[in-house]
Amino acid sequence: MAVTIFMNGSIYTGDPQYPLVQSVAVRDGKVIDVGDHDAIQLQWGRSDTEIIDLQGKTVTPGLIDSHLHLSGVASNFLYLDLTDVTSKDELLQKIRVHAEKTPAGKWVIGRGWNENLFPDRQIPTIEELDRIAPHCPLFLTRICSHVFLANSKAFEVSQYHPDMAIPSGGTIVQDPRTKKPTGLILESAADIVQRHIPEPSYEEHKQALKQAVTLALKHGLTTVHTEDLNYLGGLHQTYTLYNELIHEEQLGLRCNLLIYYTYVEELIERGMYTGFGNDQLRIGAVKLFADGALGGRTALLSEPYADDPGHYGNEIHDRATLYNIVRQVRHHNMPVAVHAIGDQALENVLDVLDRFPQVQFRDRIIHAPILRPDLIDRLKKGKYIVDIQPRFVASDFPWVIDRLGDRRAQHSYIWKKMIDSGIMCAGGSDAPVEPIQPLLGIHAAVTRQSPHASSQVWNETERLSVPEAIRLFTVGGAYATNEEHVKGTLSVGKWADMTVYSKNIFAIHPDELLTTNVDMTIVGGKIQYTRE
């Protein structure tokens, strides 16, 4: 196959042997040489060699998002997007306008609301939701995807009654006086309502997911690790959707599919397992939850919430159940990827994982924002990959201090300390919880500031350098799936996955990351996105 030379760039390879080069030679999708342009041209230039001029632009190894939900990103193309709403009145008005166009009995679905952006932080009551949408069931997912709002029509359609059995780890919040629902639903209790919401058609899922994949490429991502089975109709349909988009339509994005634990036996029956697939589409670790999220006070803490004394959060699975789930996964020699936000949830997970030998693929801890010193030592000794989301620091502060108090807040989102301690971290967005743009996550890791409140720095000693932040989204993501030998750096023999920027992200002021564009996304030596 002919050689392609990407020339005339400032190419940061991530490889310490050749950290900065001008040109990369590619054949069969892989890097065959790196160096200055004259040497590469002399070695590989032929009449059939394709030359792509990078025009002096900055290039890094292709960016990897180690934890997101493409199905959730896709849902913003299907449903009412509430992520930009900044007050309760605005939220209610946006829902009202949509509901007025909705026929009686048809569901109004929305996601992305966040009361921490509201001046008064007040969540709509069920009476307010009933007034704006009396004729149709209403279901609204919070930005964290762990807290939900429903109106009376939704509870009616769902045949809810106070004596109904609630799924483990979930809560239908009730008025203490009347025992009637307040409209607020926590964690797994949402299944009571969600099971009654009509599923989008296969084609609707496919077109929305296609838009999400295209958006990922637009923002410079070459690989994503995504968990979608509960949102795209189960294992068979989810894999079929990705297979058609990635292999048949050749959209180019590399996808690693996390498997929700309830689908493990079906996965094995289909002859699949962690590592099954190819370099474009592969089965990943087995996903499960240990707790919820800080926003809705469902993350499991070892001490009570500072703003809700006596409340410790929600335990999705007790230790015995956690043990049995991991035992089932280990029976098939597969790794787990466990959502753990509260420090007690993380301790519970580590207590269980310590009882099992490691397998070929690395176990992953997702989020882990609250770290006591003893937990840092345990993470390091266990050689776990920790999937962190740097953009959380921009979204969660300062309200997270209300949840945790000053002392615990100082032990939270401490990525510099984790990296310096030798813990391998991978960078992600948790999109659609945070925007899918990795440059926003890199900015948050480097500045520890919100783009909207740049004067306030949260725990400045935990700032990362730009190279450290880039490493999270390149090398870290490769290690998370045991693919460090084929991606993460632009080294000879690895895939020629590259992200090209409109500015030199290593030389500009960090705030300029917010106005930096991705000019080109290259996967396996093929240009999959070019900014017009």
Task: Present the secondary structure layout.
Elements: E1 4-7, E2 10-12, E3 20-21, E4 23-27, E5 30-35, H1 37-44, E6 50-53, E7 58-61, E8 63-68, H2 70-78, E9 80-81, H3 88-100, E10 108-113, H4 126-132, E11 138-142, E12 147-150, H5 152-157, E13 171-174, E14 181-186, H6 191-194, H7 202-218, E15 221-227, H8 235-248, E16 254-260, H9 264-269, E17 281-289, H10 319-331, E18 336-340, H11 343-353, E19 364-367, H12 373-382, E20 385-388, H13 392-396, H14 399-409, H15 415-420, E21 424-427, H16 438-447, H17 466-480, E22 498-501, E23 518-523, E24 526-530
Précis, in short:
Helices cover 31% and strands 22% of the residues. The protein has 17 helices and 24 strands.
Structure description:
- With 532 residues, this protein is of the alpha/beta class.
- The protein is 31% helix and 22% strand.
- It is built from 17 helices and 24 strands.
- The strands form four sheets. It has an eight-stranded parallel sheet. A six-stranded mixed sheet has the order 3-2-7-22-23-24, covered by helices on one side.
- Strand 4 and strand 5 form a beta hairpin.
- Helix 2 crosses helix 7 (202-218), helix 7 crosses helix 8 and helix 16 (438-447) packs across helix 17 (466-480).
- It is globular and about 80 Å long.
- 52% of the residues are buried.
The mean pLDDT is 95
What would the principal axes of the Cα set say about the shape? globular
The chain-level structural class is alpha/beta
Largest sheet: 8 strands, parallel
Work out the oligomeric state of the chains in this entry. single chain
Approximately how much beta-strand content do the residues carry?
Answer: 15-25%
How many helical stretches? 17
Helix content: 25-40%
Tell me the total number of β-strands.
24
Instruction: Report low-confidence residues grouped into runs of 5 or more.
Output: none
C-alpha-based Rg, rounded: 23 Å
In the sheet with the most strands, the strands line up as 8-15-16-17-18-19-20-21
The first-to-last residue Cα distance is 29 Å
